[in-house]
Structure formats: C-alpha cells, structure tokens
Specification:
The chain is α/β, with parallel strands linked by helices and 668 residues long. Helix content is 45%, strand content 20%. The N and C termini lie far apart (84 Å). Residues 211-342 form the GGDEF domain.
Length: 668
Amino acid sequence: MNHSLLLDTAVPSLLATMDALTLEPDFQLFFKKAAAAVRTLLDADGTALILLDEESQTFEYKLFEGEHQHLLSAFKGFRFSASQGISGQALANKRSIFTRDYATASDAIPQLVNAGLQSNLVIPLISSDKVLGVIASSWFKHTDKCAEVSPQLLALAERIASQIAVACHREQLEAQLRSLVTIDPLTKLLNRRGILDCLDHSLENLRRYQRGFALFFIDVDGLKAANDHWGHETGDLLLRDVAQRLGDVMRKGDQLGRLGGDEFLIIAECDQAHIELLAKRFLQALRVPYGSGRKRGRLSGSIGVVLAPQDGEDEISLMRKADAAMYLAKSQGGDRYQRASVKATLPQEQLISIVDVEGALERSELQLWYQPICHLQDLSLVGFEALLRWCKPDGEVISAGPLIQAFEAARGDLEYRVGNWVLREAARQMKLWNRGDFAPDIHINISPRHFLHPSFLLELQNLCERHPGFGKALIIEITETAMLEDLERAKRIMLRCRDLGARMAVDDFGTGYASLTYIKRLPLDIIKIDRSFVADLPGNRVDWDITQGIVSIAHALGLTVVAEGAETFEQIGCLRELNCDQVQGYFIHRPMPFSDAQGWLDRKSQRPNGGIHIKPLHAVNGRKTSALNNKLVSAACLQGQSLAPGQTLSPEFMDPRYTLGNPQPRSA
C-alpha cells in the first residue's frame, strides 16, 4: 500500500478508533467502530473479538463485525483450548501472526475451515501486562488484498488493537465491580441485592404481561450444629454444596440467590399445580449428609412458598409472607415446605387455654427469645428485648400473644407466676450476655396487673440482690394502661424500681390515652413508639407528623426514644431524620432463641475492625435520606445483623439498595 493510501485511509481509521474510545461508553458499540476501522484498514472481510477465560484456559468468540455474518456469527460462544490454535501461539509469543493459507495451517480449527476461512491476522490483546485475548481479522476469498500485510498497516492495526485491549480491560474491571455488588462471594450465587433485583424484574413482568411466579424462601436446617461440631470452614463448604445442589435441580429460567446466612430465595415461573413438585425437588436437594461417627449429621431445609399475584403483588408483602411460611415450616420440625396462604389462621393458638400455659410452665417448655435493639445513628447494639415463647415438644413455637390472652383471661395467679419466671430467667441468662466491657440492656415487658401487684417489687429486689448488675441492665416496659390504672401507685413503684437500678420505659406509646401531664409527672427514661406509627413511613404524612411530635416532646423531657417495628431502610432513614435514638424491628433481626442470640452476638464481636465507620447523616431533599446513608444502613443489614459497639463496615458490604431486612409477620 502506498504512502498516500496510508494517509487517506489508515490514519483516519486510527483516529476514528481513538475518538470512539473517548466518546463511546458502550463497549459493544465501541468494538463495532474499532473492528470496522481494522477491517477498513486491512481491507478484510471481518474482525472477531476472541477473549481468554483464565480460569478454564479457553478462548471464546465474543463478537464479530463485518461481512459473512451468517458464517461467523454462529460461532459466538464457541470455545477452544488456549494452548492450541494460532490464537494460542499469538498470546504465548505476544506477537501478531498472519496466516496466508489458513486451511493448511497445522493449528487450524476444523470448524473455521469448514466455514470457508482462507486467511487471517491474529493480534494479541494486552493491557497493563494483562493478557486478555486476541482480535482476528479474516478473509474468505484468496485475492491480492490478503496476499500480505505490510509492516506499516500491521503497526497501525496493532495500535488500534491496543486501544481495543484498553477498552476491553476497562469493561472487564467494570464487570467485576458489578459482580461484587450482586454476587455472593461464598456461593457465587446472586446475593441479596441481586436476587431482589430479579424479584423486581419478575414483578414488572407480572404487571406488564400477567406472568405469575412463585417464591421459595429457603432456610437450611442443621447448619448451626454443623458449625458447632466441625467449625465454620465446614459450614461454608456445606453452604457451597447446598448452593450447587439447588442450582442443579433448578429449571432453566429460574433464579437462585443467597439472602444471607443460611437463607436462599428461588424465583420460579410456575402455577399452583407445580408448587408441590418443585418444593419436593428442592427439599430433596437440601438433604445433605456430612461428618462421620458420633458427629455425623444431615442438613435439610424449611421452605416457605408464596405465589404471585395470589399472595401479593409487591416485594415487601411477598417476602414477609414467604418468610413467615418458612418460619412456620421450621417450627413444625423442618424438612418440609409451607404455603403462605395456609398460615392465615393458626387454630393451635386460638385453642390455647390456661391449662396449656400451666403445663408449659411446669414442663419447662417456656423460653425467652431475644430481639436486638440498636442505636439508630450507627446501628451499634444497645441491648435486647426479652420475649416469651412456648416451644412445644413437636417443634411448634407459640408467640407471646396467645399465651398472654390465655392467662389474662383466667384472672388467677398464673399471670404473676409467668411474669416472675420471665424476670428470673432473664436474670439468670444476663450473666452470659456480658462480653468484656459490653453488657447489653435487657428490656422486659411487665403486664399492668403484675406491675401493680404487691409481689412485684419484692421479687425484683430479691433478684437484684442475687444477681448483681441485673438492676442496672434491666429496662422495665409497661403500657400506658398500667400507668393510668393507679397513677400515684405506679409512680411509687417506678421510683422504687429506679432505686434498684432499673430504668422505666413506656411501651406502645401513642396507642393509649396518656397525656403530657402524666408523662411529665412519672419517672420515665424511655418512650417506645408503637409500630403502627412506623409501618407507613415515609408515605403517611400524619404518622410522620405524629412521630415527629412524640420525638420532640420526649427529647424536651430528656427521654430516649425507641422506634418499634422498623422493616425497611426507608423507615430507618425516616426515623434518623426524625431524630429517634434507637430502633427495633425485623430490619435488624427477628426474635431468636437465647443460644442463637448468643451466636449472633459472638459473630458481631468477632468481626474485624477497619473499613467504613457508620456515622450519622442528615437527610437531603426533604424526606429522602442521602444515598450514602442508605448504603450504610443497607450494608449492615445485608448481613441480617447490626454492628457491635465500636465495630465498622468494610467496603465490600456497601449496598446502594436495600429493601427488606428480615421480613416476618408482626408478633410480640
């Protein structure tokens, strides 16, 4: 090629490529421009992008630009060994290779020969010493234009290839960053954000095309025992095994992700008739044996299933119902699935009587479960609320509501006996909570009748004497009803509780009839805003204004404000903007047995320091919290957990979108 032709054709092609790299953010569009420049420069029939997969050491055809699309476009996705072929030679020697007669080359690929490839030029793609692959310019007919490639043209083509390598490297780095946001590093599945993005897409298809789907909310049974007996390394191996097994039995088109811990979510397009078939398939995959001898065990799964649109048409309601159904399946012994609609009524709870509660107390079947309470500004742990549960021998767990209804209706002394048992059990377990310099607060609900009963103060005084420090850690929660039933007597009892070191909190504030006069006259320390005012934030203007008023009044009186029932990061952002002090709800964690709560606290205490500290951030643009504020909240709850005092978050947990923490139906 003469000098004039180089000036007229080659150099403008090179400059066009440079401009494309600068101005074109889409890599595929950039490659089309760059490949067209190479093809024009060499007068070739087409140019292909062939990338190296370092893990499998194979080449893969990614893109092709030029004539004969019908021949080479069929090769998209075609793989061959990186140690063979002319492409392998070019990368190994890091130099370009021109093959005049491709069919007679020793390393020719038969499929390309059959496609009619006559000549090609392979140029390695290398950026920052990283070998990425090659570009291959192809000719399909023997003509003078493919007789040779002059050194000048080759130099220009290699210059363009270097720009393609830079763009390709940039695209790979951006893809890696995107995968860090949406891929779980342990199982290589979609993480919480990734699978919830898929759920959003499924909901959009539901709205547009009426395409229903099912959610399978999966919790692995027995993983804690495996961790205890064999260590967390074995637990991680089992989680990876579970992820692989679930992936193997999924249908093409279904989506699988890890929500966090031992919880997984599968989104499957199916109808009611296919739910049982899929659920049984997943349950079978989750039956994983491990260990040997006395430490031999087996994992299984508890699955909650919801069907859209029958069970809901939005993310929050579907996730909440699926989690509730899963929890019911687990309470019934696990290794089973539960449809959400079946959980609408629980006749066992409706039939609970005083005899049942008496028997549960005598057989030591009552337990205290604990729900974390955290500082709103940094989500560091403050303490726990102790909640009553009846854990039946068959694995079913009855929440506090039916139990309270049973012994309140009986009008005997069972209410006092159960209340005193709760205090004694909390005092006994309190000693095990202390972790070095950190002793969490323990919130305990005391019923109005129990609080005003003559035995209450005597029992509390004895406990504080037998368990030093219990009084200081104790926060007694009473309702507005207890305060108003006998105001002066309630005030005397509260002052005596304070003398023992305990603090006083008003529970479910805003649902009763307490006036500001009563709040001013009583020795209170904490006000807990009822969940009904939090549920509709930020959209409900009335709830916003009421909550703002409660917080302002409480702070004016020197009281701490705890918001109950927080379930979404939007609610957390609103509560921060409203200057609430502490938060409690399924966004942080649902109530859990004492042993699970201990393990949860241990994991938090073992998290390494360093990373990004959560600091208080103010809202901008009205009620919309800042993006960074939401990321920090999301990062903490991506773990399904809060931070222990003084702990920080590492950058890999920064999640710009978080919709739901640990959804559960609301119960005491």
